[in-house]
Amino acid sequence: xxxxxxxxxxxxxxxxxxxxxxxxxxxxxxxxxxxxxxxxxxxxxxxxxxxxxxxxxxxxxxxxxxxxxxxxxxxxxxxxxxxxxxxxxxxxxxxxxxxxxxxxxxxxxxxxxxxxxxxxxxxxxxxxxxxxxxxxxxxxxx
Length: 142
Ligand code: B12
Description:
The chain is of the alpha/beta class. It has a single domain (2-139), classed as Cobalamin-binding domain (Rossmann fold), CATH 3.40.50.280. The protein is 42% helix and 15% strand. It has seven helices and four strands; from the N terminus they run βαβαβαβαααα. It has helices at 23-34, 49-59, 74-87, 98-101, 104-113, 126-130, 136-139; strands at residues 2-7, 38-43, 63-67, 92-96. Strand 3 (63-67), helix 3 and strand 4 form a beta-alpha-beta unit. The radius of gyration is 15 Å and the shape is globular. Bound molecules: cobalamin. The site of cobalamin has 24 residues, from helix 1, strand 3, strand 4, helix 4 and helix 7.
């Protein structure tokens, strides 16, 4: 399976002085590679959302995963997940990392209904989306 692992953008003001090596995501990528998956990593601290879209369009991954270790990144992860699913409905999107794990229920609520609590796209049920957000325990990396 082709898996694209995405680290979200740097936090506000950090671009000037701090870029983190995406250690957690690299660990996940290593586990996936050891299980014979083909993995690419995109780091949004240094690459743009346009680069992400371009890579998905060109490489067509079966799955895209995000690392959610900072709460501040969660709105971006939800927006990108929605954009990817809207364009490539067959692409499996999932999120891991501790901040995603302990906000999983809220992430799903926002993913399905949007930030203002509006109803999601017609026909999309919570059940359809649950497969799109899994935590690292269910991935079996822990
Ligand atoms: C080391 C560290 C730093 C280092 C960063 C080093 C680096 N390269 O990442 C430094 C000192 C630079 C740093 C800075 C900051 N940090 Co810091 N940091 C940590 C710390 C102690 C460990 C992170 C780490 O490297 N873990 C090791 C890696 C291998 O594990 P991991 O990233 O957690 O990934 C594992 C899992 O989460 C999971 N996983 C991760 N991604 C994914 C994706 C998928 C798909 C799956 C399935 C699983 C998965 O699997 C991985 C392997 O087990 C954590 C606390 C902690 N104990 O986790 C705080 C922590 C992440 N930091 C925190 C904060 C607040 C900050 C700062 C904002 C502090 C500040 N005010 O400046 C800055 C922001 C930096 C930035 N983003 O720009 C908070 C985040 C709070 C939150 N929930 O939003 C934490 C949780 C500490 C805390 N308890 O408050 N930090």
